[in-house]
Amino acid sequence: MRILVVSDVHSNLVALEAVVADAGTVDGVWQLGDVVGYGPDPNGVVRRLRDLGAVGVRGNHDAAALGGGEIEWFNPDARRAMEWTRGVLADDAREWLDALPERLAVDTAELVHGSPRQPLWEYILSAPIARENLDRLAGAIGLHGHTHVPLAWLDADGQVELLEAADGTRGSLAGRRALVNPGSVGQPRDGDRRASYLILDPAAGTISWHRVAYDVDAVQRAMRRLPLPPSLSSRLALGL
Ligand code: ZN
Question: From the CA of 157, how far away is ligand 1's center (Å)?
Answer without folding.
Answer: 31
